[in-house]
Amino acid sequence: MEFAHILFLALASLAVVAAFNVILQRNPIYNAIGLITVLCCLAALFLTLNAQFISAMQIIVYAGAIMVLFVFVIMLLNIRSEESVTDRQKYLKWLAAPLFLALLGEVIAVVRHVERFQPPAPLPSANTMNNPEAVLGTVESIAHGMFTDYVLPFEATSVLILMAIVGSMLLARREKKEDIERIEQALAAQEAEQPIVEDSEEEVAA
Amino acid sequence: MVPLSWYLALSAVLFTIGVVGVLIQRNVIALFMCIELMLNAVNLSLVAFSRFHNDVTGQLFVFIVMAVAAAEAAVGLAIIISLFRNRETLNVDEADLLKL
Amino acid sequence: MSSLFNSIDLQYVIGSLVKIAVFWIFLMLVVAYMVYAERRVLAVIQNRLGPNRVGWQGLLQPFADLIKFIFKEDIIPLAVNKWLYIAAPVVVLIPAMMVLIVYPFGPEVPLPFGAEIGSALNSLGSSLGFDWSINLTTINLYITNFNVGLLYVFALTGLGIYGIVIGGWSSNSKYSLLGGLRSSAQMISYELALSLSVVAVLIQAGTLDLVKIVEGQSGWFGLKWNILMLFPAGLIAFGIYLVSAIAETNRVPFDLPEAETELVAGFHTEYSSLKFALFFMAEYVNMTTVSVLATTLFLGGWQGPFVDRYPWLGLLYFLLKVFFFLFLYIWVRGTLPRFRYDQLMNFGWKVLLPTALFNIILASVLGVLFL
Question: What is the ipTM of this complex?
Answer without folding.
Answer: 0.92
